[in-house]
Amino acid sequence: MLVTLEGLDGSGKSTVWEALHDSYPDAVFTHEPTESWYGEAVNRAIEDDEADPLATLFLFTADHADHLSRVVRPALADDELVISDRYSDSRFAYQAASLSDSELTRPLEYIRGIHTAFSRPPDATIYLDVDPETAAARSGATNKFEQASYLAEVRANYERLIDAEPERFVRVDATQSPEAVIDAVETALERLVE
Ligand code: TYD
């Protein structure tokens, strides 16, 4: 089973992902961007304010393709529980926002389309829901993806994804304390894997 964690920067996703290591010691924990050289290229694009948004989309997507073939598909073939901190929905939400003023007419649909051809959709996605102002303040707004106005667009895209597939998503209120968020995610996960 493939479970993904999604949310804005500063939603506490990575803290939750760390905490889950104790409750699911046998699961395969992974994340996007990965630590491969593709992931390193992605990190360069994240830090570069001049990076072309369409080129950045393809770097993230290349990293995803490598992540799938090297980590996710082999683990699923072995019947492992895979828990990924960010996955395809991050592209649908973030890069669709980066490309909202581009030559693409429907960026979110376009990005989903690229993935449909080769990706493995998550079985379930836990969405840590936080408002863009809290997200930007918590993340320190150190790069272009962490500004409140941009995160507002990203959040609207996540809402569109949830509307399209409500059965795949579990929404958790991430404005609560970290302990309460971890509890809520653990309860959600117990139900999903039972
Ligand atoms: P991440 O490493 O999850 O950041 P953090 O741990 O600081 O939350 O992701 C780095 C940034 O990349 C984050 O701002 C979200 C963005 N991102 C995308 O824009 N598209 C993607 O497909 C992914 C995986 C991340």
From TrEMBL:
<dbReference type="GO" id="GO:0006233">
    <property type="term" value="P:dTDP biosynthetic process"/>
</dbReference>
<feature type="domain" description="Thymidylate kinase-like">
    <location>
        <begin position="5"/>
        <end position="183"/>
    </location>
</feature>
<dbReference type="GO" id="GO:0006235">
    <property type="term" value="P:dTTP biosynthetic process"/>
</dbReference>
<keyword id="KW-0545">Nucleotide biosynthesis</keyword>
<keyword id="KW-0808">Transferase</keyword>
<comment type="similarity">
    <text>Belongs to the thymidylate kinase family.</text>
</comment>
<dbReference type="GO" id="GO:0004798">
    <property type="term" value="F:dTMP kinase activity"/>
</dbReference>
<keyword id="KW-0418">Kinase</keyword>
<dbReference type="InterPro" id="IPR018094">
    <property type="entry name" value="Thymidylate_kinase"/>
</dbReference>
<dbReference type="InterPro" id="IPR027417">
    <property type="entry name" value="P-loop_NTPase"/>
</dbReference>
<keyword id="KW-0547">Nucleotide-binding</keyword>
<keyword id="KW-0067">ATP-binding</keyword>
<dbReference type="GO" id="GO:0005524">
    <property type="term" value="F:ATP binding"/>
</dbReference>
<protein>
    <recommendedName>
        <fullName>Probable thymidylate kinase</fullName>
        <ecNumber>2.7.4.9</ecNumber>
    </recommendedName>
</protein>
<dbReference type="InterPro" id="IPR039430">
    <property type="entry name" value="Thymidylate_kin-like_dom"/>
</dbReference>
<dbReference type="GO" id="GO:0006227">
    <property type="term" value="P:dUDP biosynthetic process"/>
</dbReference>
<dbReference type="GO" id="GO:0005737">
    <property type="term" value="C:cytoplasm"/>
</dbReference>
<feature type="binding site">
    <location>
        <begin position="7"/>
        <end position="14"/>
    </location>
    <ligand>
        <name>ATP</name>
    </ligand>
</feature>
<dbReference type="Pfam" id="PF02223">
    <property type="entry name" value="Thymidylate_kin"/>
</dbReference>
